[in-house]
């Protein structure tokens, strides 16, 4: 397959003069003959090229996510080398290719350090809760319209948006009640600033990179939000060790009031149960219902 000129312009300065490149599907590699005389880094580094015609919302969102994550923590995700629109109107992005393996228990602490560094990085001046472009969590295009208030953003752009799109009367009732009674109490009083989030940090999107000899995350669905919101899906599918949470919270202490941390985690997790209900149907509804009912029971106990 041919390699577009705008891609070669990005790759050639990264390799010795005269290096040729070969493309197989989305994967671009220095040719064997050229890389054999180059450095070990030249031999090892390969690249991921994506191009889409028409509605390329997911690709554009992924590129913007990687760019923001790279700026916050260079190690946490593949490096984005470039993105744009080609001469035929197709959206494209070029990033590092990583050969992946599972993360060992010993590497979980290092992963936590990377995620914490990303969350602790200051947001751009004037950045509100949300993101400049839509991003896709799985197949779901997220409403990232910005809000000044984290509680308003999460209530309207996350829980409310999904409940409305699912069109299930039980979830509609429970979701609206959580919006009215729970979210103002759990999120409305928090003193938090926008952090760049991965947005879809389940264990399948966190692996060990053989290229870097480090953990890495990928397939982001980023936006600026409360750092703890990134942990919601880590609980849904498991795969994250106690060492991950221990090291993370050594660097990013639980937001005050810490005694409401567990309820916040349930709230952030329910978003992903709702999203999976929207994508895959009723098999995930029971998890969403259970979490929503649990939050409302907590509100009852609090007299809310």
From TrEMBL:
InterPro entries associated with the record: Fructo-/Ketosamine-3-kinase, Kinase-like_dom_sf
Low complexity bias locations: 29-41
Similarity field: Belongs to the fructosamine kinase family.
GO molecular function: kinase activity; protein-ribulosamine 3-kinase activity
Gene3D superfamilies: 3.90.1200.10
SUPFAM superfamilies assigned: Protein kinase-like (PK-like)
Annotated segments matching region Disordered: 14-41
Keyword Transferase listed: yes
Top-level enzyme category: transferase
Keywords: Kinase, Transferase
Catalytic activity: N(6)-D-ribulosyl-L-lysyl-[protein] + ATP = N(6)-(3-O-phospho-D-ribulosyl)-L-lysyl-[protein] + ADP + H(+)
Protein name: protein-ribulosamine 3-kinase
Naturally occurring in which organism (per UniProt): Rhodotorula diobovata
Stretch forming the signal peptide: none
EC number(s) on file: 2.7.1.172
